[in-house]
Amino acid sequence: MFLLLFIYILWSTTYPLKGLLPPKTFFLFDPLVIFITSIARRTMLHGIFFCAGMIALTLVLGRFFCGWVCPLGTTIDIAGALRKKTRLLGSRMNSKLRLPKFLILAVILLCAAAGIQIAWVFDPLVIMARFVSLNLIPTLTLALDKLFIAMISAFGLYGWAYDIYRSLKTSVLGVQVIYFSHSALIFLFFLLVVSLALCLKRAWCRALCPLGAIYALAGRFALLKRVVRPCTACQRCRQTCRMGAINDDLTYVKGECILCMDCVYECPSKSTSFKFTLSRHASAVAPGRSGVKGTGITRKSFLFWLGIGLFSTLGFKNKDDKKQGIVDRPDIIRPPGVSDEGKFLDRCIRCGNCMKVCITNGLQPLLFQQGLEGIWTPQLVPEIGYCEYQCTLCGDTCPTAAIPRLTLDEKKSFKLGLAHIDHSICLPWAKGEDCIVCEEHCPVAQKAIHLREENVNGRVVKRPYVDPYLCVGCGICQNKCPARPVRAVRVRPLGGF
User: Which of 194, 439, 469, 491 shows its CA 20 to 30 Å from the CA of 109?
Assistant: First the structure.
């Protein structure tokens, strides 16, 4: 249900914003994203109270989010179901397999303390949202649209089938089919995460997920505990546990249990159950053995991994040491409202919300144009799409306020960059031919691009000029410019000239 809700929220978010819930809803309940971004930017984000509520629920129920809510976890389970035989690991191997996620969490925390936000790399909601927004929705929308058109054309189904198609075009298929650069790499990263389940059930969740590590630490104190009594020691529960949380002696690691209830369903004697109890341990499953163990990581081990994490961050520089508000590359235009590059990089979690809702498809993911720090952050590419003058969706859907939420009046006055006319390419300047496309499309009421009549070789030609005080750098002039292959009008950030 939550997987379908997650996809629906992202799918239904279009212009104007009218979906059931805003696409940032799930992220407001993501402790990894909200806490780490708050630490990195030394601020308190809006969702911090929701995340505190999730931790409180985990202290009562245990690691329920991973088993019942997480859309990536559900997808991983679906992939894991394709593998019928799963290698059964011993308790010692399972214990070692759980350690990396705590190391990853430690490194993320220390980077945040240094002012560097890297939670987006491993956060499951971000990974899933990026795949759904930039891969799944465009691909399915295009495929279904083409399929309907092919069927209607091939079989002459212009009756009921055509009516269904027209109905879907106003809803599901009405989502704009858009293109995203580097979407293949985004898909491959998602595929790598999910395909680990083909080797071992919930391999990502067991070993690598830092959000799972947060819930594992909180879940060890949960009031809801697994109770096994009496037990025939058939080992069925340990064999079916998708998290490897049940040990060889049939005790279990409470912080690793995701409440999937497989052990309850598979128990032949129906002796396994979950109950609320204030006692430290659940009922014993064997003489001299307690039914509950910790998270699979000792205090000594966690401090050891924390030390390694600290050492690994020594090479990083705090971006606050750089000059703020100046872009490092002259050809990168950020979304409206972004004026502090360091702050933007630390807050952006690369979820893809802004790029998915951009109605012109102008926001595109970066790759390595700004180094590793800028990978998959959004940039405006005017030749693909301009920044719509009447739209504020990117700021409205950003879960961490990396793109500030602007009013329409604030958005209209915010300068993304400045348009520049290349006289060697522009038709009125280079060839003396009439062209008023850029001036016609300029959305600024006073016209940031104006025309002047000038005498060129005995004939009057209207030449375009850019007013730097009125130009907001929306890029529509560059997008509509008829000059090819290079546009005569190009927009650059204010520091890019």
Answer: 194
Strand partners, 225: 275
pLDDT reported for residue 370: 78
In a domain, 252, yes or no: no
- Cα–Cα distance for residue pair 412/169, rounded to 1 Å: 31
- What long-range pairs does 103-106 form, CB within 8 A, spacing at least 24? 103/305, 103/308, 103/309, 104/208, 104/210, 104/213, 105/210, 105/213, 105/214, 106/302, 106/305, 106/306, 106/308, 106/309, 106/310
Please tell me the predicted confidence (pLDDT) of residue 289: 44
CA 233, distance to chain mean position in Å, is 43
Distances in whole angstroms, Cα of residue 184 to Cα of each of 11, 136, 280, 301, 359: 20, 11, 49, 38, 21
The DSSP output letter for 311 is H
pTM of the entire predicted model: 0.84
> Residues near 95 by Cβ (< 8 Å), separated by ≥ 6?
296
Looking at 411, 446, 468, the residue that finishes a domain is 411
Which tokens in the block code for residue 128?
């899933």
* One domain for residues 399 and 452: no
State which residues form the domain around 358.
1-220+295-411
Q: How confident is the model at residue 215 (pLDDT cuts 50, 70, 90)?
A: very high
The answer to whether residue 398 is domain-embedded is yes
CATH of the domain at 464: 3.30.70.20
Q: What is the pLDDT of residues 76-116, one digit of tens each?
A: 999 988 876 666 777 777 788 899 999 999 999 999 988 88
Between 317 and 151, the higher pLDDT residue = 151
214 and 330 assigned to the same domain:
yes
pLDDT category of residue 177 using cuts at 50, 70 and 90: low
